[in-house]
Design brief:
With about 400 residues, the chain is an alpha/beta fold. Helices cover about 40% and strands about 15% of the residues.
């Protein structure tokens, strides 16, 4: 079996790691693994690949960005780069093409999906967000917009996401995606969460949706870790609430951040990961510790392990791997009920509260902190082993490939 994965990145970032881990399973099963990704963006070991394609150049990506901003239509430029990629795919002759994120100013989806139809190549799409079935946006929940169910237009995210300065092409682009993707008999759509799959079934992709396959994580990395981090951070006598800065410090969560940090117990501290320099320098709260980006995943597992609870105050998430990583490290999770985040936990491994209900959020954080982490640790690690082991989860893709190629689906 020859499998080609196409994604903006390979081997790093959430989708890049997922793409690599799926191909690792292909190799372990005796198949041939190929990857295509944006040029200058891979920073990982590609030695296991039978071959790879670097898509476009920095100049191509800049040109795509400018065209998209001026004219709209994200994903319909990069003609030269896409044609060159397709000529390389002709040489590989893959049995399966597997697509992830194409909305990063590097791909012409019209050329790609017309090629898939012409060559009759079975093509799996993993939905990591909603872009494949909306006219423009990745996350319609930001604005509570459901126009994608019928027709887009008057897009509330015209200048918020994949900025289009002058033209709203969302209605036109949704029509084009319906023809290219939703009516393409060689396309098979997989959601990474039940929530996202259910959205796809209500969209232009409804006839192409086949199943849900949750994201998996590497349990050899994400497991309870012993470290000196608590001592280094001066947290020996503190209860640690861990969170990600991009959620906690977003404009959407100003009230959540203020309420939690103003009202939590004196023996608690919030540790935020992924802070930029400005966020670190501007932090004036004594009960908040701001940490920069953690690129080393073993170090990240150490941070999850020292936490008493992980709080994901997300407004939009399809199926957050940070929740899975925390649970795998034995740390219970409290999350807002938004998108697919609530699917990652149960009452034995954390709690779910309505989005924006920061009073209930603090109540649940306090309840878990009072219970003590030991009550949850084994249940958390067991849930991770049972549901989120990358090897088992990504074997499901190999099973899907086989079903497709044997025409059983």
């Amino acid at each position: 079996m020859k499998v080609l994965q196409i994604n903006a990145v390979y081997g790093y970032g959430s989708t890049g790691i997922i793409a690599k881990q799926i191909l690792d399973e292909v190799v372990d099963a005796g198949g041939e693994a190929y990857a295509a990704f944006m040029k200058h963006r891979h920073t990982t070991d590609i030695s296991s690949l039978s071959g790879y394609i670097e898509i476009g150049s920095k100049a191509d990506q800049i040109a795509h960005t400018i065209q998209s901003r001026l004219l709209g239509e994200q994903g319909f430029y990069s003609n030269r780069a896409t044609r060159k990629m397709l000529s390389e795919i002709d040489k590989i002759k893959p049995d399966i093409i597997h697509l992830h994120n194409l909305h990063n100013n590097y791909m012409n989806i019209e050329l790609l999906f017309n090629y898939v139809r012409e060559k009759k190549i079975p093509t799996v799409i993993t939905l990591h967000d909603a872009w494949f079935f909306t006219g423009k946006c990745c996350h319609f929940l930001y604005d509570g917009c459901n126009r994608w169910k019928e027709k887009c237009g008057k897009c509330p995210r015209q200048r918020k996401e994949f900025v289009s300065l002058f033209f709203d092409k969302s209605e036109k682009d949704l029509i084009r995606k319906r023809k290219l993707v939703g009516e393409n008999p060689y396309v098979y759509v997989v959601g990474c969460s039940n929530w996202l799959t259910s959205c796809a079934k209500a969209s232009i992709l409804h006839s192409r949706v086949v199943c849900t396959i949750n994201n998996g994580i590497d349990l050899s990395i994400f497991s309870p870790k012993e470290s000196c981090l608590r001592e280094q951070l001066g947290l020996e006598k503190k209860k640690v609430i861990l969170g990600m800065a991009n959620k906690w410090l977003s404009q959407d969560n100003e009230n959540t951040y203020k309420y939690i940090t103003d009202n939590m117990n004196e023996d608690c501290v919030v540790v935020l990961l992924g802070c930029n320099k400005g966020q670190i320098e501007s932090n004036k709260k004594k009960n908040v510790i701001t940490i920069g980006f953690i690129n080393d995943r073993t170090e990240l597992a150490c941070y999850y392990s020292i936490a008493d609870v992980f709080a994901n105050v997300t407004k939009v998430d399809s199926f957050p791997t940070v929740n899975l990583e925390a649970i795998a490290c034995g740390t219970p999770v409290v999350t807002y009920n938004s998108g697919g985040s609530a699917e990652t936990v149960d009452s034995d491994t954390g709690a779910v509260v309505d989005y924006g209900d920061y009073i209930s959020l603090l109540q649940q954080l306090n309840r878990i902190l009072n219970d003590g982490k030991l009550k949850y640790r084994d249940r958390c690690t067991e849930r991770a082993r049972k549901f989120y082991d990358k090897k088992e989860k990504f074997q499901e893709y190999l099973g899907l490939y086989k079903e497709i190629l044997e025409n059983n689906i």
